[in-house]
């Protein structure tokens, strides 16, 4: 093993033939793409045949760590599921923290590439250079909490770390997630359905081999200083340390961009019941961290009384409070805790689940859906009892849940009667909890995100609605998106947590400390640009074009209804201007396709022959 | 009076930075399995963290239990440490300790326990929440 953070090994699993092999990590690619997102994208681009059905055995499911996972580089204990998304048809990278990534590394692997489909349900057990497929007959049908408990018993390790799917993934719901350590989800894009389509119930790991870095003494000195100065004392992290993401509820409410009642308003009269103060005073039990994290943004919460007494979750996080709280017309955090716990147990993405639940309530209120569709539930705004039953209905595909399980876009198409006009998505992925009508740069961020509408690629809201910029000016928004996408591409390859406000220079510092290789701010930027061009090229190869970088009709034609965003929308002309500027900044053509020149400059010359549009 | 680490568990968030720095400085690898402090996260119920480490208690039954006198006195600190070279890996100390303060290295070749890093415990220094004190 080289002492450079990497284990140097990739685990390859063919579920069809039940063959497991170990492969050497492509060291050249590791240099070019780092790990996580970048490395996963490079392998997927190389090995996935274009145009395959994401739910077929031909799709490739991979799990990656980063070079810093398992080390003391703070906030890097994350894994990413990289595959082709069955929800969007795009490249998909979905991340989760918790404790699994270091165990994969300590078991001797940088990544896992899974192909084919098992004849019957199985799970993958990895420990110290070895891996085996085990019968998952007794796990199938179980929720993720129970699955974790049973897997730990079976493999005989009290602290084996488990990522599993619940009933939602087993039933191939396209908004299903992969849940690790009870509450940490590789949530978006239907990762759970890809597991389910392969008859793969779980991946579990426990390793004792450790990870080595270039110079341990120097490394520890550097890491201790950085943890104190750049994490604990970093003013950017103050709110994350005291409150965690729920602090954003009030920020969004004040900026009037908090999704409310199926995206009809940016202000929620019940926001005080679901904000950070509500969390801290009503349900918080203790703060909880992922492995290697000095921030500990997680809030372990428990409902003390009422209808949902005893429900527990970590969080709820801002996205869940927004999409499953205000967007569903919910005023009490207790109900959101219960909804979040059910989503984790059943293996559902809360962002998508909140979107489809809000949509269903809206349609019920409009009379498009009736009690016949809801299994007798009075699915009205504020009916917490009915709302609380939605995750199970979606995961188990009961009643209207049968169509909601495949996301808002597909559900609305099946329901018809104007439902399509109420949906807010890009490339089929439902919007997360920042309404672009209160920060129009987010419309560009969502439209150009490689996995469909996502807030974790670019976040222009920080500089305008949450900062001092003009939220309705298209000026400069393209440049923010390009810069953010470049930086996050590197971050998601280390894999840093979103909540570490780490700059390029410090990422370079960490890279050198882990690998011993020289780096610089510019070196990190080059890697970020390379990765973003690669995932774009992947999507173009899958047939995506400018039309798919879409602005949902509602954002343009359906202004918000109250507060400082009352009457606001995203003017089409502004959106198109931002998009054109964005393509130009990346050096792509008018269709949003990376040009030969852009790819060559990004160090991607070798993929040019694989892109038919360049011939 | 025990001379070992003290922990305010209410502040613990389970990040395991203590175990990371411990393994890094003791064995030159990041590997919580080789750490002298162990962190357990017991969720969803009871929703707590547990820390295990040698408390350097006054009775030190580990010392008496060792058949080869491999647990030796660090005279400067007045505490006992495992001499890895002398240890035969019999596990008597692990059984003798009532506090779950020492355990076997993953190799099974020898026992490991907190040695207080020559008086400057690295876990205390790195703990971001002030859980650990000397």
Largest sheet of chain B, if any? 2 strands, antiparallel
What is the CATH superfamily label of the largest domain in chain A?
A: Aldehyde ferredoxin oxidoreductase, N-terminal domain
Structural class of chain B: alpha+beta
Average pLDDT reading of chain B: 96
Which outline of chain B best applies?
Answer: globular
CATH topology of the largest domain in chain A: the name is Aldehyde Ferredoxin Oxidoreductase,  A, domain 1
Radius of gyration of chain A, whole Å: 22 Å
Largest sheet properties of chain A: 6 strands, mixed
**DSSP helical segment count of chain B:** 4
Strand percentage of chain B: 15-25%
Strand order of the largest sheet of chain A: 2-1-6-3-4-5
Total number of domains of chain A: 3
Q: How would you classify the helix and strand content of chain A by structural class? A: alpha+beta
Concise overview:
Chain A is built from 25 helices and 17 strands. With 615 residues, chain A is an alpha+beta fold. Chain A is globular and about 60 Å long.
What this model shows, in words?
The complex is a heterodimer of chains A (615) and B (134). Chain A has 615 residues and is an alpha+beta fold. Chain A folds into three domains: 9-205, 4-Layer Sandwich (Aldehyde Ferredoxin Oxidoreductase,  A, domain 1); 243-423, Aldehyde Ferredoxin Oxidoreductase Protein, subunit A, domain 2 (Orthogonal Bundle); 436-500 and 520-614, Aldehyde Ferredoxin Oxidoreductase Protein, subunit A, domain 3 (Orthogonal Bundle). Chain A has a six-stranded mixed sheet, with helices on both faces. Chain A has a six-stranded mixed sheet with strand order 8-7-12-9-10-11. Chain A has a three-stranded antiparallel sheet with strand order 13-14-15. Chain A starts with 8 loop residues before the first strand and ends in a 14-residue tail after the last helix. The mean pLDDT of chain A is 98. By secondary structure, chain B is α+β, with helices and mostly antiparallel strands. Chain B has a single domain (6-133), classed as Alpha-Beta Plaits (2-Layer Sandwich). Chain B is built from four helices and eight strands; from the N terminus they run E-H-E-E-H-E-E-H-E-E-H-E. Chain B has helices at 17-27, 61-65, 92-96, 122-126, and strands spanning 6-7, 38-42, 48-52, 71-74, 79-82, 102-104, 111-113, 132-133. In chain B, strand 2 and strand 3 (48-52) form a beta hairpin. The longest helix of chain B has 11 residues, at 17-27. Chain B is globular and about 40 Å long. The two termini of chain B are 12 Å apart. Chain A binds chain B through residues 70-72, 74, 99, 102, 106, 145, 158-159, 182, 207-213, 216, 219-220, 223-224, 227-228, 231-232, 285-296, 298, 300, 302, 312, and chain B through 10, 13-17, 20-21, 23-25, 27-34, 40-41, 43-44, 47, 106, 122, 125-126, 128-129.
